[in-house]
Amino acid sequence: MEEQEVRKYLRQIQEENSQTALRKLYALYFDRFFRIAYYYLHTEEWAQEVVLDVFLKIWEHRASLHQIANPEDYFFITIKNAALNYLEKEQHRKELTIEKDTVVKTDKSPEEILIGEELFAHYVKALDRLPERCREVFIRIREEKQSYAQVAKELNTSVNTVDVQLQKAVKRLREMLSRFINK
Length: 183
What we know:
The protein has helices at about 5-15, 20-40, 45-60, 70-100, 110-130, 130-145, 150-155, 160-180. It is about 80% helix and about 0% strand.
C-alpha cells in the first residue's frame, strides 16, 4: 500500500465527501483490518462488524482526517481499540445474561502483552509486503487452517505450487520479522 495513495483517498474523503474514495480505501484496507480484528475477536462476524464500524467512523469524522500523521499506525490502533471495545461489550453482555461476574485471568504481564501486540503489528505489516499469491496461500494454510489440497483446488494450481508458495512466504516472513524476534 502506498502511503501517497492512502493520503489521496483520505484527502478526497475529507475535502470532497467522496464516497468513491472511501470505497477505494475500504478495498485497500479491508483484508488487513479484518485480520487485525479477527486476531483479537476470534469470530469472523464480529471482526467484520468492527471493520465496518471503523469505516463508518472514518466517514463520520472525515473533517478531521487531515490530522492523521501516520495513517498505517492510526488505523492499526483504531482497529485494535475497536476490537477490544467490542470484546468488552460482548463480555459485559454475556455477564448480564449469565448474571455472574467473570474475571478474565492472564499470566502475562502488561509488558509481555505490549510486546505481543507490537510483534503482531509487525507481522501484519510483513504479511502485507508478501507477493499476493504467497500471502493468499500463507493465510489460507496457516491462519484459516485449510489443507494444501483444498488451497490448490480453490486456486486452480498444484499442491506442489502451494507448498513452494508457502515455503517462500514463511522464508520471507522469517527474514522480515527476525530483527523483532531476536531482540
